[in-house]
Every structure is written in C-alpha cells, then in structure tokens.
Amino acid sequence: MKNSSLALCLISAAIVGTILFSCNTNAPTETAKAPAVAADTLWHAPDTATLANNPNAELIRYGGQLVANTSQYLGPKGTVAHSTNGMNCQNCHLAAGTKPFGNNYSAVAATYPKFRARSGTVENISKRINDCIQRSLNGTAIDTESKEMKALSAYILWVGKDVPKGKAPAGSGLKELAFPGHAADTANGRTVYVQKCQLCHGGHGEGMAAADGMGYQYPPLWGGHSYNSGAGIMRLSKLAGYAKYNMPFGTSFPNSQLSDEEAWDVAAFINSQPRPHFDIKADWPDISKKPIDHPFGPYADGFTEAQHKYGPFKPIADARKAASK
Ligand code: HEC
Ligand code: HEC
C-alpha cells in the first residue's frame, strides 16, 4: 500500500507542477495542508505571577477558579448557586481560556462590547458570559451585579489585557477547518467516536462523574447533562475545529490526532445525538446573517436544514457570495 500511495503522491505533485505538500507516506492524507501559523508565534496569556501587583487580584483569581471549576460553585451541588448543569467553562475554554486554539478568551477584552447577529444587539461581556451559561451550560443567567459575574468578567478581561483594541490575535478562539467537499458522515463519525473518544466520554456520550461528585472528570458530549441545542458548539465548524486541535485530551495545535475529515465526521455524529432543547425563536432577528452551518432553520436561502447542518457547505458559501455581489 505504501508504494501505491507514494506513486499517487508523486503523480499529484507532477500534476500540480511543484511539490506543494509533504509526500510522507506515513502521514494521514488529510494533513497535506500545512498550518499557516507556527505554534511559537501564537498568543500567550499573561503570567499569573504578575497578578501580585494588581489591585483586582483577588477578584481575578476567583474568576479563574469559576472558569476552571464552575460546577463547584454554580453546578447542581454548587456552593454559591445552582445555575448550571455540572460542566465547567474550562471544559470548552481549555486551560481556563488560555490555550492557543483551545477556545481561549484572548480576543474578548479587545473586541467587546460588540454587535452580535445572533441577538441582533450590541453585547457586553456579561451578556456573552450569560449566553454560555444558558446554552453551553444549559443553565439560568446569573445576576450581572453578582460577585461571580464581576469575577468572571474581571478574569476574562485580564486574560486579554495585552491585546491591542479591535484585534483578535493569532491563535485566538478556535481554528476553523476548510470545508470538506461533501457532507459530513455521521456513520463514519460514530466509528471515530468509538475508536478515539468513547474511552473517556462514554458509550452514550454521558462522560464520567468526578470522584467528589461535584462535576465531571470527563464531561458529557450529549444527553440531558450536556450543552443544549442553542449552544455555539452546535455549529459543526466550531465542534470540528475544537476537536481537531484539542481532542483526544492533551492534543494541541499544530499537532492533531484527527484528520479534517474525521473531525467533521465525529462532530456531525456528536451533534446529531439528543440533548436539551433551547428556544432560539429570538435568535437571528435578521436570518440572512445566520452562519452557513447554523443547524436550525428558517434560512434566507433555499438550502435545506440538513445541508446547513452537515454540509456540503461550499455551495451555500458560493451562493451567498454570488447574492452579495
Ligand atoms: C460546551 C462548550 C462551552 C462551554 C461549557 C462554555 N462555552 Fe463559552 N463558548 C463556547 C463556544 C463554542 C464559543 C464561541 C467560539 C467562537 O465563536 O469561535 C464560546 C464563546 C464564549 C465567549 C466569547 C468569546 C469571544 O472571543 O467572542 C465568552 C466570553 C465565553 N464563551 C465565556 C464562557 C464562560 C464564562 C463559560 C462558563 C460559565 C463558558 N463560556 C462555557 C463554548 C462553550
Ligand atoms: C483521554 C480522555 C479523553 C479523550 C480520549 C477524549 N476526550 Fe474530549 N474531553 C476530555 C476532557 C478531560 C475534557 C475537558 C477538558 C477540561 O476541562 O480541561 C474534554 C472535553 C471535550 C469537549 C468539550 C466539553 C463537552 O463535554 O462538550 C468536547 C466537545 C470533546 N471533549 C470532544 C471529544 C472528541 C470528539 C473526542 C474524540 C476525538 C474526545 N473528546 C476524546 C477527555 C477526553
């Protein structure tokens, strides 16, 4: 098999006229596109040692605790309130929102308040935090004047404090993957899930409770205790980008244990599973602004809900481009 893939590689190189990609026959086929950014040029969070001189240090540290151990404070058995489902912010915002391409908070201080088409309003940081509390943590909004909201905001602002206003630094948020040429395949996604995810996240996506019973050692990916249908990670591009450069746990950009194809497929499998419902009637007051991969209609274009959910996305992107000319 090695010889034939080497031959294919050489033929492709000949057709392209120049060797654009690595012809390492051991590499998974999908990793042909080299990442455009080198890992060592990516944003890094400020050093927590510098907090010593910060008059707000206590509040900022508490905010970091709330991100990392949300369930201890706000989960079903939380010590402060019972506002969330037992997951932690950190489950999705890795390393307390400081990991490059680990859905970090680097761009928040520099870009909020900002207009968001989902709500059709200018959102400040507390509104955005409550969005994740209500959707990603399937919970109830917390009081914007509470110590917890002030601490979460102070921490997130501190994480992004050195980023120039209006900028999203290299490595911010999640890394988007190129759209595949075909629809994501939930059946192949199930195979990927069984091979590479199930060990930790469980046969039914239920995760594994932490020993102290306060939250999870491995958070749930679907079912009654997971993120609800209104969460941002319901968009395939978000889950695929998260999975590719962060999962299985311990994976970091630019390394990946999943090909792009596997990342899209496993995302499709996970997001096709049952989870709590969230009423999104008030979302996207201007439906023409709905992202291409928003999984629920109505849409301003003629593409089906299934195509918006699983792809192929490129025809939708092309149609939008043509319409906006
Ligand atoms: C189930 C996964 C998940 C959990 C849990 C979660 N979030 Fe999020 N969060 C997301 C996703 C996905 C985005 C959108 C990222 C994007 O648009 O690229 C997001 C975006 C954000 C943003 C805006 C980032 C930006 O740059 O615009 C903030 C702030 C935020 N979350 C705070 C929180 C806080 C605080 C918690 C815990 C109370 C939390 N999130 C829990 C998935 C999650
Ligand atoms: C070795 C154990 C392990 C494996 C294997 C693993 N994960 Fe995770 N996963 C974790 C842990 C731990 C977290 C939470 C990270 C944190 O809180 O710091 C997590 C978080 C997540 C989250 C965000 C939180 C949530 O519950 O929605 C998603 C999505 C996810 N994993 C998907 C996957 C996918 C897809 C795979 C397979 C490709 C996978 N994981 C494999 C341990 C694992």
Tell me about this structure.
- The chain is mainly α and 325 residues long.
- The chain folds into three domains: 1-34; 48-159, Cytochrome Bc1 Complex, Chain D, domain 2; 174-325, Cytochrome Bc1 Complex, Chain D, domain 2 (Orthogonal Bundle).
- It has 14 helices and four strands.
- α2 packs across α8 (147-159), α9 crosses α12 and α11 crosses α12 (260-271).
- The longest helix is centred in the N-terminal third of the chain and has 15 residues, at 2-16.
- The model is unreliable at 1-34 (pLDDT under 50).
In short:
The protein is mostly helical.
Topology:
Blueprint: H1 2-16, H2 57-68, H3 70-74, H4 89-92, H5 94-97, H6 108-111, E1 114-116, E2 121-123, H7 125-134, H8 147-159, H9 186-196, H10 198-201, E3 208-209, E4 216-218, H11 236-246, H12 260-271, H13 305-310, H14 314-323
Antiparallel strand pairs: 1-2, 3-4
Helix pairs in contact: 2-8, 9-12, 11-12
The protein binds heme C (2 copies).
One heme C (HEC) is lined by residues 88, 90-92, 94, 196-197, 199-201, 218-221, 227, 239, 242-243, 247-249, 258, 266.
Using brief descriptors, characterize the structure shown.
Cytochrome Bc1 Complex, Chain D, domain 2; binds heme C; mainly alpha; two-stranded antiparallel sheet; about 325 residues; single chain; about 35% helix; 14 helices; 4 strands; 3 domains
Secondary-structure element order, N to C: HHHHHHEEHHHHEEHHHH
User: Quick one: CATH class of the largest domain?
Assistant: Mainly Alpha
Overall tally of domains: 3
Distance between the termini: 47 Å
**Distinct bound molecules:** heme C
The chain-level structural class is: mainly alpha
CATH superfamily of the largest domain: Cytochrome c-like domain
| Beta-strand content estimate | under 5%
